[in-house]
Every structure is written in structure tokens, then in C-alpha cells.
Amino acid sequence: MSKQYETVIGLEVHVELATKTKIFCSCSTAFGGAPNTHTCPVCTGMPGSLPVLNKQVVEYAAAVGLATNCTITQNCKFDRKNYFYPDNPQNYQISQLYYPICRNGYVEIDTPAGPKKIGIHEIHMEEDAGKLIHDEWEDCSLVDYNRSGVPLIEIVSEPDMRNADEVISYLEKLRMIIQYLGASDCKLQEGSMRADVNLSVREVGSDKLGIRTEMKNLNSFKAIAHAIEGERERQIELLEMGRQVIQETRRWDDNKESSHAMRSKEDAQDYRYFPEPDLVPIIISDEWLAAIKARQPELRTAKLIRYKKDFDIPDYDAQIITSAKKMADLFEATTAICKKPKKVSNWLMVETMRLMKEHEMEAEDLKFSPEHLAKLIDLADAGTINSSVAKEVFEQIFLEDIDPEKYVEEHGLKTVNDEGALRSTIEKIIADNPQSVEDYHNGKEKAIGFLVGQTMKAMKGKANPGMVNQILKELL
């Protein structure tokens, strides 16, 4: 009988913080930019340059720690992690080993078996390295230090996850918390959120951990799920053949859907960590911590409870709207203006989601203003425009954030509520379609739909559908 295996997974998640400037200097952290233009003597590791800590980095790290139920280390400090690599200009990275800023937290995820707590071992602050670009054409490697010194937090989980679904749930939960806090945009494709997966397998029932490998270079949820599946199978195959799993770092290749060994895994002593002599310890006073706590925004769980109470919208709507902070902000701001929560939620859930899918956009990319959506809802509600015109106008708001009132005026899209004009159009339609009139009189209810359609066409879609139906029934 073949053995049953269990997968044990822990994650190291790196998140680039949304500060305007780097962690130890005043260079810009903006993504992109010509190579080596966001640099100075500090972030390129020039001799004699000294780091100065960016206060906002500490506040963001503490905010993430509070939101993930961690204990904040109020007396923490930085350490030097020594390693030699071309993208690491000082030949060391300033990180935190001995006293990380946050520890012993957790986030709760939903699993088929119910809620599950995933432990967070620690969160520490550190600086990012530069980026090596391998130029195949010139057969050389170039280095861009724009990213060097961009502030990171590394969130180290406990080995509490057992499959790819739990890993994705955990990452989605972290991403949502961090986006709600405004601490990072967490865009996997731009590398502002990166996850390394530590995975081992063991026989079911065993409490001893197997030998783990670490997989890097995972920049989408799909790649993470595939890499977990692939690595699990690879390790089980080795064990079934009576061979050993080697502790190593592996690189995932998304195109080939397979991983290969990069280097054997080092231990902390290989890095010769020692306290960073150029930076003073960080003392987070009770007052400072209280101020950070007081600024914590309302997170999703609290929003869900409040939406039910204040806005009386269905659970399903609330779940979707709060799944992205940008969506929740739009919902609240628009509702505050027009006081019609259910209608706002319908526009966001139906038309907004449809157009986002069509244009392959994330909620963060939405550009339209709550004022314009509220105006549109009011126009449709007042019967100034009908529902098909409203959809057409909304598409323009979605793309260009136009003012709906002006747009309706300029394009002559107002609903025709003039009974005289409608009546004469409908009389002409009835005269032109004797067959449909006869069908209607013979009990075919559907025939009236055809006549409504013809009237709307004649009125270029701008007639009031209720009025058209009423007049048609009266004349027939």
C-alpha cells in the first residue's frame, strides 16, 4: 500500500512599502524610470555615506503588524546581513534578525473545513536590492540600482498551510489588509508583493518536518499554485524512490512550468549578521504606538458588519464591494452623495465589473469619480434618461470620467416624456405594422414587445419605456 503524504508550507512574503522615498535616503521609490536615475551615494553604497531611517517605514510596518494581530517590538534595531552579489551595492543588506519589529501574529483564512488561523512568525523591515539585467544580445549583465534601498517588510509565516488553496487565501488576505492600510499597492506583476514558498512533505500522521526547499521567482497566484503542485510531486517522487530531498533554493520557470536548483540553502550564520553600527535602535514609545493604532483604517471585517447595518445591502454585494478598498471607497463616497446604497451597489457590481473584465483592469485602476456616478444614478432615477442610455453614459464615465449631465445635454440623450410627440410616433408605428396589431388582438402578448421596440428605434432609444407601453395599450 502506498504511503500517504502531507504537504507543509510556510511563506516569506516581501512587500514594497508605499513611501515616496527610500528607506535610508531621499531618492524616489517610483516604479519604472530610466536605469540608475533614482539613486544617490547612500543607495548605491558609496564609502562614507550614512543611512538615515525613514520614519514612515516604521509606521507602515507597525500598522501591518497591528492589523495582523502581532506584538510590536517597541525596542527594535537593524542588523547587517553580509553577502556579495552585484545587485547588492554595499555588499551587505540592512535588515532585522535579532529584534524584528513585529512577532507572533496571525491572520484568519476561510477553508472548506471552516476558518483557520495562519500564524505569523515575524515581520521585519529591510532594504531591497538592485536589479540585475542579463543582456543576451551583448552577452553581459547590467545592474540597475533604482530599486536598491526601496523599503520592504518581510512577513514570515509559520508552516501552517497544507495546500495551494490555503496559500492563495492567505496571500489574498494579506494583500487586502495591506491595501486597506495603504501600506503598499501589492502588485505582484510589478514586484511590489513577492512570495517565496518553503515546502516540505511528510508522511500523514508524522509530527516531524521533512526537508524543505524554497522556491523563488513567483510573481502571480497562478505561478504559486503551479509551483506548489510541481514541487510537492517532485519531493514525493524522490522519497518514493528512497532518495533524499536536498535543502536548496529553487527557481520557478513559469514558461516551462518547472523549477530548477539555484543554490544550496544557507543558514543564518553564513550571513555573519551583526548589529548595524550606522543606525541607532528604534524606540517606539507608547504614545507613538497609540497614534499609529488611532490611525488604523476600518478593515474589511468591520466594513462588512457596518454595511449590513447602515446600508441594508445583501451579503453577496457587501462581500464583492469590500474585496477591494478602492471599490469600497467608491461605494461609500457615491452613497454619501446620492443616498441610494442599493443602486450604487448595482452599478458597481454589474456594469463596473463588466467593464473592468472587458478592459482587464483591477479595482485600483478605476479612475471615475463618485460625484459623476451619483449624478448618473439621479438622472436615471428622475427618468431624465432611460436605462439603456444610462448604460451608454456610464461607459463614458468609466473610460473618461465625463460629467453625465453635460454629456446627456450635448448628445441630446434626454428621455422624451412629451406625450404628444410619443403619441404621433406610436400612431405611425401602429399604422405601419398591421400584422403585429392583428397578432396582439388575437391574444399574442409578445406582439406588443415588437411594437415597443419599433417605437424605441424611431425615437433613437430616448423614449420613456413606461409611457410607450401605456400609450400603446391604450391605442390598441
UniProtKB/TrEMBL annotation:
One of its GO terms (molecular function) is ATP binding. The keyword Manganese does not apply. Heterotrimer of A, B and C subunits. This is Aspartyl/glutamyl-tRNA(Asn/Gln) amidotransferase subunit B. One of its GO terms (biological process) is glutaminyl-tRNAGln biosynthesis via transamidation. Belongs to the GatB/GatE family. GatB subfamily. It catalyses: L-aspartyl-tRNA(Asn) + L-glutamine + ATP + H2O = L-asparaginyl-tRNA(Asn) + L-glutamate + ADP + phosphate + 2 H(+); L-glutamyl-tRNA(Gln) + L-glutamine + ATP + H2O = L-glutaminyl-tRNA(Gln) + L-glutamate + ADP + phosphate + H(+). Its EC number is 6.3.5.-. It holds the Pfam family GatB_Yqey. It comes from the Bacteria. It comes from Hominiventricola filiformis. It is an enzyme of class 6 (ligase). Allows the formation of correctly charged Asn-tRNA(Asn) or Gln-tRNA(Gln) through the transamidation of misacylated Asp-tRNA(Asn) or Glu-tRNA(Gln) in organisms which lack either or both of asparaginyl-tRNA or glutaminyl-tRNA synthetases. The reaction takes place in the presence of glutamine and ATP through an activated phospho-Asp-tRNA(Asn) or phospho-Glu-tRNA(Gln). Residues 329-476 form the Asn/Gln amidotransferase domain. Keywords: ATP-binding, Ligase, Nucleotide-binding, Protein biosynthesis. InterPro entries: Asn/Gln-tRNA_amidoTrfase_suB/E (IPR017959), Asn/Gln-tRNA_Trfase_suB/E_cat (IPR006075), Asn/Gln_amidotransferase (IPR018027), Asn/Gln_tRNA_amidoTrase-B-like (IPR003789), GatB (IPR004413), GatB_C_1 (IPR042114), GatB_Yqey_C_2 (IPR023168), Gln-tRNA_amidoTrfase_suB_CS (IPR017958).
